[in-house]
Amino acid sequence: MASHRQRRLLAFSGAVVLALTVAACGGKSEPTADGKLDTPECAAYKDYTGIAGETVTIYASIRDAEAVLLENSWKPFADCTGVKIEYEGSGEFEAQLKVRVEGGDAPDLAFIPQPGLLEFFAKGGKLKAAGEKTKAMATQNFSPDWLKYGTVNGTLYGAPLGANVKSFVWYSPALFKEKGWTVPKTWDEMIKLSDTMAAAGVKPWCAGIGSGDATGWPATDWIEDVLLRDQGPDVYDQWVTHAIPFNDPKIVSATDRVGSILKNEKYVNGGIGGVKSIATTTFQDGGLPVVQKKCGMHRQASFYANQWPQGTKVAEDGDAFAFYLPPIDPAKGKPVLGGGEFVAAFSDTPAVQAVQTYLASADWANSRAKLNNWISANKGLDVANVANPIDKVAVGILQDSGAVFRFDGSDLMPAAVGANSFWKGMTNWINGTDTKATLDFIEGTWPK
Amino acid sequence: MNFDFTAEAPKLMMLLYGVIAFAAVVGLLLLVLDVLPARKDRWIALGLLAPAGLLLTVGLVVPAVRTVVLSFMNAGSDEFVGLDNFLWIFTDKNSGMLPDFGANPVQYGVLLSTLLWVLLVPTVSTAVGLVYAVMVDRSRFESLAKSLVFMPMAISFVGAGIIWKFVYEYRQEGADQIGLLNQLVVAMGGTPQQWLLDGPWNTLFLIVVLVWIQAGFAMVVLSAAIKAIPADIVEAARIDGVTPWQMFWRVTIPSIRPALVVVLVTISIGTLKVFDIVRTMTGGQFGTSVVANEMYTYSFRADEKGKGAALAVLLFLFVIPIVIYQVRLMRRRRLEGAR
Q1: Would you tell me the crossing angle of helices B157-167 and B201-227 to the nearest 10 degrees?
Q2: Which of A243, A377, A385, B260 sits CB 3.0–4.6 Å from A238 for a disulfide?
Q3: Lowest-confidence range among A98-107, A259-268, B223-232?
Q4: Mean pLDDT, rounded, for A404-411
Q5: How confident is the model at residue A223 (pLDDT cuts 50, 70, 90)?
Q6: Among the listed ranges A149-163, A240-254, B21-35, B171-185, which one has the minimum average pLDDT value?
Q7: DSSP line for A346-373
Q8: A249: burial class by Cβ within 10 Å (0-12, 13-18, 19+)?
Q9: How far apart (Å, rounded) are the C-alpha atoms in residues B87 and A179?
Q10: Average pLDDT over residues A395-404
Q11: CA B15 → CA A12, A199, B28, B33, distances in Å?
Q12: Which uninterrupted H or E stretch holds B135?
């Protein structure tokens, strides 16, 4: 009988523990804060009245140190208005956001980095259109190019937040100075410089497109950046939305232009090997020969600043710096390839709209930029608040009156192409497949 | 690296909930069984089988049925498309499943690569494991020698992939090689190669990794089987004056046949599912992709659920003959045992 008693005891204790845990999960109190909008230090926020004590939840992919900076950036606003902003960052943001929205647990605001995902929620009727004040603030601070990616069927859903610029060419200012080379301002100058470098015994370009299961993406950025310059933004838009086929002669022309650099044995792959070594070199390693002065130029986004070895001085007079990938025809403006987040709202209470408006303001952009490591296409962003030299250049490019901004195309295409066949195709292209066969293959995989 | 318990609190809580829920369910079950009247045996059997049955249904049967259903649906799983996804596998040139020898570089296709894996890994691993087991049997350093070969079994596939990726690493001629294989080639006066770039050799270089892992498994199982051969048989053979060669083919192999079959079947099924090594080392690029890798890519990255599910079903169909063979073999052996 002893064993019976033991079993009962075990069962009973199991049930008790379960009950206790359930009890421990319930209950939560909401502290309320009073606004102090009339104090002088809060003058900047005097328009945001009547939201004291309200709570606004924000969900995004930004985590850890970056998330702390984010929370600090809106602290003055929250303290003054009395609104409580609850931020949550997740590594599985994109997948989890869908789950939460489907499950009726949507956050008030989400920072969405893919226009496609924003469109998905807007078309599903999940998003609330931006309020009048938000719209006015966004229109005042962002170019139509940017607003377009937060707009679905003519309605603005999300104002842009942060930005990143991909149209950069990294180089070694030290090597340029040593050899008397200057930063090229046009495409032709850049090709001429490439020939000069090749003649001087320095391979002008280096690249790496390896990225684990995402191998190939740096090459897609190359194509997008050059297509914008070779054919202009209108063709780019048609290509992204599949209004023209992927293997259109215009795309062939742009791809061949990339090939004249990346598949040119005279030009690549500085410090690493031949053309095919591009396919097996990781994108992290692809530009490192620049600081070893074994490679002249490396096209990669501004975030490549984090890849240089420790102790590398990233500055105009340092070991590594970047120039803007020059236009082919300067008369057609200055194309900028990049990305960014958009602040979409799943709720339209006054407090949510107030926070949404504030995040589109120059006030917030400057507040965040002062905390370092962050830029935005916000016209009100003061370059003086941006500390990092490469970020300063990026802000300059974004705020240039001739700038034509386009979002990274592979992020806008259906995943079957943008996150699969485009990558595969470009990898095979580097590995020897000709341009036509490559583009025919990608066109064949576009979902019908 | 230090492990921060506070940062991992949510995960630990989840683990705690799991353990508590398990204890609660088992406790409740025992409690109920305890108070149930009469005809206890049947109730107890049913009660104890129920959790396993339920979990099998939820975790295996339902997903399997759902995958089959999804394989007949479109990318968004909201429209029935018949056999389109399967036709796509076998007829669409752009699916990359079939070989295209006219392409430059030649595309060997996912199906052919998978076949190469399934043919080579089980046979080579078993052969290497068997020869090794026979060689070290009863030698002075047997346990040390066996541990060395068995060690790779303890390494995860991803870990093994990373290790071998370094072995195959390439730097241009003249630069310092950081890959072991290229360093050896250079030391012997050759030029460094990009091992993982050109087919079909790159698939063979990946296969070596799985053989490296699985040979240990084969060796351990077969070594145990060899030790279980009755001493009188071996002795009788010795008295008859067999050569070592005859001993191996006429005595050892027939005696360990059941173990050999188990090893071959187990490794074959494991090989069909190979995913981690390919994904870690090449990401399925350069024509090295296999069915399992494509299944994952289409389902979770390309938003093509139908095609992904169809590939999963295909993989399932490939495994079935091996499983049937294994089940029949087991049944026959049981009958023989009964006789």
Answers
A1: 130
A2: A243
A3: A98-107
A4: 92
A5: very high
A6: B21-35
A7: S---HHHHHHHHHHTSHHHHHHHHHTSS
A8: exposed
A9: 59
A10: 90
A11: 21, 63, 20, 27
A12: helix B110-136
Question: Which residue carries 């929370």 as its tokens?
Answer: A71
Residue window 413-432, chain A: list those with CB within 8 Å of chain B: 414-416, 419-421, 424, 427-428, 431-432
pLDDT at A21: 45
What pLDDT is attached to residue B38?
61
Percentage of chain A exceeding pLDDT 90: 68
Element holding A160 (H helix, E strand): strand A158-165
pLDDT in tens, A226-237: 999 999 999 999
Measured CA to CA, the distance from residue A226 to residue A329 in angstroms comes to 12
Predicted pLDDT of residue A2: 45
pTM reported for the whole predicted model: 0.83
Which residue of A217, A428, A438 is the best one to mutate when testing the B interface, meaning the one whose CB has the most B CBs within 10 A?
A: A428
Closest by Cα among A39, A91, A83 to A63: A91
Copy the structure tokens of residue A216.
Answer: 């190939």
User: In this structure, what DSSP letter does residue A129 have?
Assistant: P
Nearest chain B residue to A442, by CA = B94
| CA dist B324 → B191, B266, B314, B334, B335 (Å) | 48, 13, 16, 15, 17
Beta strands in A287-434 (DSSP E): 295-299, 321-324, 334-345, 403-407
Residue A161 pLDDT more than 70?
yes
pLDDT on residue A294 = 92
Contact A17 B24 (CB under 8 A): yes
**Residue length of chain A:** 448
Per-residue confidence at A32, pLDDT binned at 50, 70, 90?
very low
Side-chain half-sphere CA neighbours of A250 within 13 A: 19
Strand (E) or helix (H) holding B126: helix B110-136
The minimum CA-CA distance between B300 and chain A, rounded to whole Å, is 10
Q: Which residues in chain A have their CB less than 8 angstroms from residue B196's CB?
A: 280
The two structure tokens encoding residue A126: 């999940």
Q: Is B12 on the interface with A (CB under 8 A)?
A: no
CA dist A264 → A430, B148, B335 (Å): 10, 47, 69
Which residues of A, range 195-214, sit inside 8 Å of B by Cβ?
Answer: 211-214
Beta bridge partners of A407: A338
Please tell me the distance from the alpha carbon of residue A202 to that of residue A268, in angstroms, as a whole number: 10
Distance CA(B164)–CA(B184), nearest Å, equals 15
Secondary structure (3-state) at A36: coil
* Facing residue for A215 by CB, picked from B30, B75, B283: B283
- CB spacing of B94 vs A421 below 8 angstroms: yes
Alpha helices in A282-408 (DSSP H): 350-359, 362-370, 389-399
Partners of residue A168 on adjacent β-strands? A324
- Interface check A9 vs B, CB under 8 A: no
Name residues whose C-beta falls within 8 Å of residue A442's C-beta, 6 or more positions apart in sequence.
A246, A247, A417, A421, A422, A425
The Cα–Cα gap between B110 and B115 comes to 9
Residue with tokens 């090893």: B263
C-alpha distance from residue A89 to each of A86, A102, A112, A149, B157 (Å): 10, 19, 12, 23, 30
Residues of B in contact with A444 (CB under 8 A): 92-94
Q: How many CB atoms lie within 10 A of CB B74?
A: 18
In angstroms, the CA A378 to CA A366 distance is 9
Helix then strand count (H, E) for chain B reads 16, 0
Averaged pLDDT, A218-232: 95
pLDDT at residue B48, rounded to an integer: 82
Query: How many other C-beta atoms are found inside a 10 Å radius of the C-beta of residue A354?
Result: 24
